[in-house]
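Same chain as my last thread, 195 residues:
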Amino acid sequence: MTELIKTPFSLSFPLALILVSFLSGCGTTSSLERSSASDLLLNSKRFEAVLVKDVVTENAKTDATPQRVALAGEELQQMIVSQIRNTEAFNSVAAEGEVDVDTLVLDTKITRYEDGNAVARLMIGFGAGSSRFDASFKATDGETGKSIGSILADKNSWVLGGGLAAGQDADSYMPGIAKKVAEQLAPLGVNYKGE
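reply #2:
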């Protein structure tokens, strides 16, 4: 019977593959940066509902058509609604409706939406043909209109290129961003149970 000998290469190769999968995209989605007035407000208030307003896409830096960016905005809005619902921290989450005293309002603006060039990312790497997706999110109190805080997303394709980077277009960042936004807003909900 042949015995498989583990060499340092044979052990490190699977680890390298796992590491590469985690490093497949660069950039961040920040935590909720609370405004100075929000601490006093949030000491006494939790929200029952969230209104995720239409995503603003005008003036976004882009290599796509305005229609494509607008569609991405609609898709991002629905992803955020879905992810916030999944937290079960709020009684109601909607993309349209009335704002009342117990509503958290989320405004979103896409500031950069660039698919870049997949072939350049695959063949050259080192930032050539990079895709980018930047957005800002502002949470406000529906009762007072005061800012609770903001979240910034700044995502781009993996700089070293290759097959992973080639598959990263601007849309590929949206599910992760939506999930992070939902996680950051969940503690503001009346039903939030903690981690």
